[in-house]
Amino acid sequence: MNWQQLFDERIIDRGYEYFCDGTVEDLKVRNDTITATVWGTDDYEVKINLDKDGAEVKIKSMFCSCPYADSGANCKHMAAVLFEWEEGDYENSDDMEENGSGTGQKQDEVLLAVEQADEAVVRSFLAEVLRRDEKLFSRFRTLINPAISKEDMQRYKKQVDATIHRYAGRGGFIEYQEVGSFVRELEEYLYHDVRTMLDNGEYQSAFELTDYIAAEAGSIDMDDSDGGTEVLADAYMEIWEEILENAGQGMKQTMFQCFIKCLEGTLADYMEDCIEQVLMENFKEKEFLKKKLDYSDYRVQKAKKVEKNSWSSDYYGGKWALYHIELMKESKEPTEDILQYCRENWKFSDVRKVYISECTRRKRYDDAIVALKESLQMDSNMPGLVRDFSRSLKEVYRISGREEEYRQQLWNLIVRDDAGNLEDFKELKKHYPPQEWETVREDLFAGLPSYAHVERLYKEEKLYDRLLDHVLRARGLQELWMYEDILGKEYPEQVLRKYEDEVNQMARHTANRRHYQEWVGILRRMKKIEGGKEKVDEIVEFWKSEYRGRTAMMEELGKL
């Protein structure tokens, strides 16, 4: 059975790595159904239904509990299970129930061999294995003595360093094809070694090792197209939050200081976001709130000292200013103090948005309007922000009952700040009687820039003659297809002529079979319009005469 064709090449590669790493467990086959557990970021349940027709076996359906498979995609866990199943190293579940054997058989054999062996032989063999594998030796040390010594921790860190160096090398970059294996090796430290420390209550050691892995791995560049860094970030946060739930105040202070120190270093963006999230969502005690307020303001002031028009300084300064404002609210500081902080950091557009929202909520409409007008000037070179502030200004005028300004701002949105927006157009129309609206509408059309989608407004107003003119002047068929349901009924002759001109233009150039199939598809659409069958017959006869040497084209026309 060639099941590999059901997967993308990169998924097959990742699945094979999982299979080689022995992540597939509890594989069972019963009634043409394969079930197994695959461990990775989490334990994922896989179920594969087979369809057997004599000697031929096909895959009927596949399921996995991982997030990637939720979208209906075939994932690496499914591939790993199929590699394991293909290997044949499993017992049929029906036979297991009858004979009492199964996946535990191999473990029973191991236990039996150990029990039968001489103690001296076991000790000698174990010592030899542990000398060769430092990682196993570290785990063995933790098993017999949960307390982690300085030497044990240094040994763990050396192993992490060796792992990173093996993948990143001297260049300090991990290629796409290596990222999956790299992430899995780090996961092994986190979900095996760190987990053992947590289970033993060794929170200081668990944090020290996790923090070291996060800091070292977070400073390495990699081609993370598969999202492995997000997996690591989730694992770090899960561990840190478990430690914070169980550790004492002294441990929390240590963690807080480490996190702040990391943020002052050079980290990948995903690691910064991860640490910021842990900082802001935890450390709720009063002493930490004060420290977070001081640190967030320090980051804001630092950003403000960078050159005036730096995008990065505006981004980071605005982000930390928003953190600071949230912390002020959390500390129950007076609203006036929060608004004053906003005014002190007026250069950041996100801060102005907070100020405007707060003023609007408190019905301080005059203050909100002044801030919005100033923001429109300050960010006049940023179309997205101009649109947001312009729309907010329209809403403030509306809720404050300033009818004339409200209608003018709607006008500004339609002809300038969000040109041709259909919803704004319909909103403005509600404020004029029908006889007056026609004049207003024509003035509005005259004020629209060339890039505005005026055709949507023509359709709304049932100005189908103008809509037709727009479609006929447009290049290609995309515009026609958007409005064909209307124009094909109102103006079938003009629409068919547009189709004829476009398809004949296409046919002047030799193409491949796929294009010929597309052209035939267009001819089928034409036949649904009044008079379309006759027009299509004309085109087909012309093509058969003019392009008779194009064999593939003639074959596709035959299917029409």
Kindly describe this structure.
This protein has 560 residues and is α+β, with helices and mostly antiparallel strands. It contains 28 helices and six strands. It has helices at 9-20, 76-87, 93-99, 104-116, 119-132, 134-144, 150-168, 176-199, 203-218, 228-246, 249-263, 269-281, 286-304, 311-330, 335-344, 349-361, 365-378, 383-399, 403-417, 422-429, 434-447, 454-460, 464-473, 478-490, 492-507, 513-527, 532-546, 551-559; strands at 24-30, 33-39, 43-53, 56-64, 173-174, 221-222. The strands form two sheets. The chain has a four-stranded antiparallel beta sheet, covered by helices on one side. It has a two-stranded parallel ribbon with strand order 5-6. α15 (335-344) packs antiparallel against α16 (349-361) and α16 (349-361) runs antiparallel to α17. The longest helix is centred in the middle third of the chain and has 24 residues, at 176-199. The two termini are 37 Å apart. The model is unreliable at 95-103 (pLDDT under 50).
List the main descriptive attributes of the protein structure presented here.
7% strand, alpha+beta, 560 residues, four-stranded antiparallel β-sheet, two-stranded parallel sheet
